[in-house]
Insulinase family protein
Amino acid sequence: MNIVSRALRFLLPATLLLPVPALAQEFCTVGIAGENDVPQYARPDDPWIYRGTDIPVDDQWLFGELPNGLRYAVRQNGVPPCQVSIRVRIDAGSLHEEDDELGYAHLIEHLLFRESRDFGPGEAIPHFQRMGAALGFDTNALTSATQTVYQLNLPNASRQRLEDSVRLFSGMIREPALSDENLAADVPVVLAERRERLSPAMRIAIATRELFYDGQRLANRAPMGTVEALQAATSGDVRAFHTRWYRPENTVVVMAGDAAPQVLAALVERHFGDWQVPGEVTPEPDFGDPVVPPGLDPANPVGETAVLVEPGQPRSVTYAVLRPWEQVVDNLEYNRGLLIDAVAQAIVNRRLEEQARAGGHYLYAVVEQEDVSRSADATFVSFAPLTEDWESAMTEVRAVIANALVQPPSEAEIEQAVAQFDVVFQDMVGQERIQAGSVLADNMVNAVDIREAVAAPETFLSVFRGMRDRFTPEAILEHTQRLFEGQVIRGLLLTPELGEATADELHAALAAPVDGTAIERDDGEAADFADLPPIGEAAAPVTREPLGPGIVQSTEKLTFANGVNALIRDSENEPGRVTVRVRFGAGWRGFADDEAVYALLGERALVGSGLGPLGQNEIDRLVAGRKIGFDFGIGEGVFQFEAMTRAEDLADQLYLFAAKLAMPRWDVAPVERAKASALLTYDSLGGDPMSVLNRDLQFLLRDRDPRFATPTPEQLRAATASKFREVWARQLAQGPVEVSVFGDIDPEATIDALSRTFGALPERQPLPAEVAARTLQFPAANAQPIVLRHDGDADQAAAIIAWPTGGGSAGLPQSRKLELLASLFGNRLLDAMREREGATYTPFSTSNWPVDVEDGGYMLALVQVRPEDVDTFFALSQQIAEDLATTGPTQDELARVVEPVQQNIFRAQTGHTFWLNRVAGGSFDPLRVANLPSLAVDYLATSGLEIQALAQRYLLGHGGLKVVVLPQDAPPR
């Protein structure tokens, strides 16, 4: 059941989605209606995934096996209401390809959506859009080394819609139209996807895989395949792959949603039960074990090493301790061992992090055990040297690990790690009732893929708490030692400089003896919130009132005398979930033209620089065993702290946020570390088209406003910790503060905690007039695109076109309609450049409307293409803009974007984060509340004529800013 990885992966559960009257649909749980809903092959007394294990059966699932070999797992789940999540897993991925089939598994994934038994060419995606399933979010597929999974989150899943959708999915899986015509259409799309993903990061991943798994199938079988194999593919070849692997014996259907499990099981049996594929089942190929070189010393098994030169990329080292993957008996004792492993890893990783914070030779270092694609059981060690002296960094990292291999951890270290896991498992139990069906379905698919079982959250918690006496220093030491034992160790050094190191030098550094006795551990006692200084004198709110009438009446607005406002909303249907959001200050308006470098450093170092008497290490120990977070972001007109917590930790969470404003600490080390990080990664921002856009696009969209320029290395080196303090002390002290606490709360206890924290803050300083008045400008249209250059492959380019719109809360109704216009534009771009031209995989269009400022909004379209296709993009974009402005969208086009929005609102509207996002800032800006009742109408009742008028105003009213990113050697335009 892999308790540890699953628990950590889903630490933050999916947003709760329940209906409210504003968009209520009919009660839609599909119940048993007759004999047609009674499955024949369900086996509640013999669930196939639990055979051979003592893990308690999660009886929320109903399992079955059909005579043709297909297996299924289904369960009822009402989160969100009226939705059923469908997953069809094929036990075949890129590891199942032969040498002349590289890329076929992923290619077939595309072809199934192209045309099938019940769908004509290009009909599948529009069909599901009309049903409210958004492309990518609700309708998707993935191909990995070991599986291919088809996904549908079906909203508004009435009995007939559910029946039809399972039938259609069955037709796609069983009878795709693998014709020469469809192959000719989809191979260019797959090659475009491959081209777009072939970034420096992808090349590094390929080189790492080839080295670590040399001699195994995994070494040269990435899902993207090879250009040669894809271009040579014929319909007969692809059909042979489909026939070989797409058969019921290799298929698992998983469904979780708002329907009786018997109904779901019967649907699977009805639409997959007669599936037969002639011939014998092809045995799964042998994935192989890590290859041990002849003569390798078992006591120091350092094997192959390599140096990869990737100009512009930051230095890093990864080495892997490799063991054969083994099919485990997934029982409780096995999972107890995993938990001890996890605690051991957590302790080592905390020590590595503390060494880096204390001024080590590396920026970060992390240890992670992973079962890799049923090909290897590996422990990976990765770190980033701060300078070209990678050998000192390696010695330091290995010394920390060496210390952990000979000295047992302290009880304090164990307690901190155990407390963190305990809160994870507690949280899973508390939120079980609101776990989304899509997450449950994905969990089941992942369990099938790794050949393990699933378990209820109560099982996780009881197993963990039942073994507390096994987390001894001796046991942790033993499991730490096992994590670093293996048959072979392989290492890769990534460097931007040719000739900086050799494979032999890396081998020698990995094999050299290392002394861990000099490593100092920080075993200080954890602080207690009760011992921390108060924020100030507690002050109750001077006013308490509903935020507004109607749908926001249950949100209470509090006003404090010091200039702080608060919004609180109790959501009884979301047990265990509380979101705290603190909005303050001026955001980007608060920076002077020469302070962009401190904005960047603030995003990376402000939280880590501490508060009051606490540095980063002390805060880590303080919050152990609590569900507390500290996210920070900068918006156009506001700064924001945010965290997901729970009622029992809410007062402490509020204290940390308020203390950051009232008593900020200015440790130098986090600032210096943030500078080092930015310097190390700066050159990588030119490595491919999207990296260049990430570096420069906001600067260009803001008419070259220096606040939005990515700081140069010279600016980073010149930045000082004292100036950082000056800039951020000003930002933390200025402007109004709004605290929102939404979720499963006790309102009176929450108000009391707010009074002791944010109510106790000193009076806020107003924003200076010149700061409040700063605006965001959009550049003039350009006939010739701005040309940027990247250092990547010669066949990669990107292009954008953007138009100015607006901003501010008064325009919220219009901003919602602009989102529809952007979606319509994106659909047309998808049809034109991907489906017809095969020139790109991910055309993208979006609308950005800042609510906190009165300007700065824009709509943009973006594609990644070959350089020779850039002009096609601009021509098609202009054609789409003119056509939308001249004739508007068709009713079908409008339905394809409106219905997914309607279903998304219906699913989301009583999750507390939905309302928090809608009313954030509303305690100071009444227009946000005033424009909330029209939300549904603005999206759902927008006409084609309104869309046409918006296109005329914005897409033709400004000629558009055009930007293109080309390879360095591409000819000038």
